[in-house]
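Here's a chain:
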Amino acid sequence: MGKKTLYIDMDNVLVDFPSAFGHLGEEVHAAYADRLDEVPGIFALMQPLPGAVDAFHELSGLFDTYILSTAPWENGSAWSDKLAWVKLHLGVPAYKRLILSHHKHLNHGDFLVDDRTRNGVDRFRGQHIHFGTDAFPDWKAVLEHLRPLA
């Protein structure tokens, strides 16, 4: 039997989404007030969450690991920016392992680390590890949970 399959979301799981906000001018904040994810190029400005890169590298050795993320439909650069971010921050273990979909439940696997229940997460057939909750507040907690399950 092969390795168990693990999917990891990007935004607010691997990527610190708000880290890009300081790079945007006031006029951009005003123009995209409630839809900052639609700002062209915003996904290229984001930094990794603390511990995320090391956790990804460790988990890639233990599981058949993929990045499973959505990209805003109205932001064409988000798709290429997310790929560039993965290449820059995650490197070889993430080679050709980025899946962009608004239907995460279509991916079959054992575990999904995600901070939300939208975009099919609520219908994912494996275990949803709800990142950022009391049970899984950070990467340390996620690693402690997943290591024994590999």
Summary: DSSP finds four helices and seven strands in the chain. The two ends are 12 Å apart (CA to CA). The chain has one domain: 5-149. The longest strand covers residues 64-69.
